[in-house]
Design brief:
With 232 residues, this protein is an alpha/beta fold. It has helices spanning 41-51, 74-84, 100-112, 116-129, 145-156, 175-192, and strands spanning 7-16, 20-29, 33-38, 59-64, 67-68, 85-88, 163-166, 195-201, 211-216, 219-225. It has a single domain (7-225), classed as 3-Layer(aba) Sandwich (Rossmann fold), CATH 3.40.50.300. It is built from six helices and ten strands; from the N terminus they run βββαββαβαααβαβββ. Strands 6-7-8-3-9-10 form a six-stranded mixed β-sheet, with helices on both faces. The protein has a four-stranded antiparallel β-sheet with strand order 2-1-4-5. Strand 9 (211-216) and strand 10 (219-225) form a beta hairpin. Helix 3 (100-112) packs across helix 4 (116-129) and helix 3 packs parallel to helix 5 (145-156).
Amino acid sequence: MNAAPPSILALRDVSCASGFGLPVSADFASGRFHLLTGSTPAETGALLRVLGLLDLPESGEVLVADHATAGLDEEARAKLRAQRFGFVFAAPFLLTSFSVIENVAMPLFKVSHVEPDEARRRTGRLLEFAEMGDAAESRIEDLTLRAQYHVALARGLANEPAVLFVENLDGALAGPELAGFAALLRRVPAELGTTVIATASTAFAGEKTDRVLEVARGVIMRDSLLQPEPEA
């Protein structure tokens, strides 16, 4: 029998009055695509923000690679987020005064302080991965909404995070655009080794994910492993 991959994140009896009141416990295996669905975007969004160390839980503990985070001050939490996490929020939030490649490269200079040659190499590789290699010098306002989300994905992956959080996956995209973006996210764990944790409505078809957790009124109603665990 293959050993289960290690957990990159875990919740231990976590509650949050703004989104889910009852304690939630869950483990998130490394190198997988986890989908959180729920009765309301507020509930899954609150869970995502607690997992991403953007909000503090009312009670309980968030573990990052088995390390407790409850005792960290805001500066330490921000540093851990910058080092370990990437984010694609419900809106792309790209900077319109900068080009596509500048938007993707900015975290490399502001957080990782990489050399220009390394930044150029990494941004080029990520834009190709995000299917935006031909748009590196484009202006943000010239892009479609679909293209902006692909650029936001490349930016979220720029610092080679251990976990990429994707908020409200099916909130703005639909049809073939949503299917294409979800398929791209499916490639992230397999090709880049980054764990993906995304939220979506219960209407979203999660067949491109490895696992679906359905949360309702603070209770995990369903925890389905859709893809077999990879060999250790």
